[in-house]
Amino acid sequence: MRCKNPTLCSGRGTRVILTDLNHSNQTDFVISSRAFMALSNQGKGQDILKLGVVDVEYKRVPCEYKNQNLAVRVEESSQKPNYLAVKVLYQGGQTEMVAMDVAQVGSSNWGYMSRNYGAVWDTSRVPNGALQFRFVVTSGYDGKWIWAKNVLPADWKPGMIYNSGVQITDIAKEGCSESECGDGSWK
Question: Which residues form the Expansin-like CBD domain (predicted)?
């Protein structure tokens, strides 16, 4: 993302990780003061902070988590055996997670999870024992299932992070050619 005010803002912009979405046709980004200041030219960080709101342009770029598998953090609100909420961490590539299911390890009896908000998925139908997950991930127009076969141990605990053993690195395919859409770099 980069700010469109050439007096205050750098042309290079900064990278941010989006974890939630707005279901309207308006786009608002709420970012940390550190990220906000990173949009500015040298010595103009405090000036851009004083504005509070700036016009920006953005482009979607792949997330890179070198040597890091997709992981899930069991949220503090989880209460075994009645409720499980997990936050998905280190989702690499240029993808969107659109569905998540859970099952006991070794079982084919999958139960769906609901997106609670952002990268947090939850269910009140928690299987017993160690748990596996499967995800539907889209990159552009294509979607695929990704299986993480042994993620949560039977004695999972809120606040803990568990490695899924899988990595996501897919890159979105362009929906139109450069001649149809321009260079597609900034919106």
Answer: 82-164
Shared domain for 20 and 103, answered yes or no, is no
How many domains is the chain partitioned into structurally?
2
41 shares its domain with 118:
no
Mean pLDDT of the residues in the chain: 86
Per residue in 129-141, pLDDT (tens digit) is 999 999 999 887 7
Predicted pLDDT of residue 179: 47
Termini Cα distance of the chain = 9
Which is nearest to 123 in space by CA: 131, 132, 111? 111
With respect to residue 179, please indicate whether it lies within any of the assigned structural domains: no
The parent domain of residue 154 ranges over 70-166
- Within 13 Å of residue 88, how many CA atoms lie on the same side as its CB? 34
- By percentage, how much of the chain surpasses pLDDT 90? 48
Query: Which residues is 171 bridged to in the sheet?
Result: none
pLDDT confidence of residue 142 = 74
Residue 183 lies in a domain: no
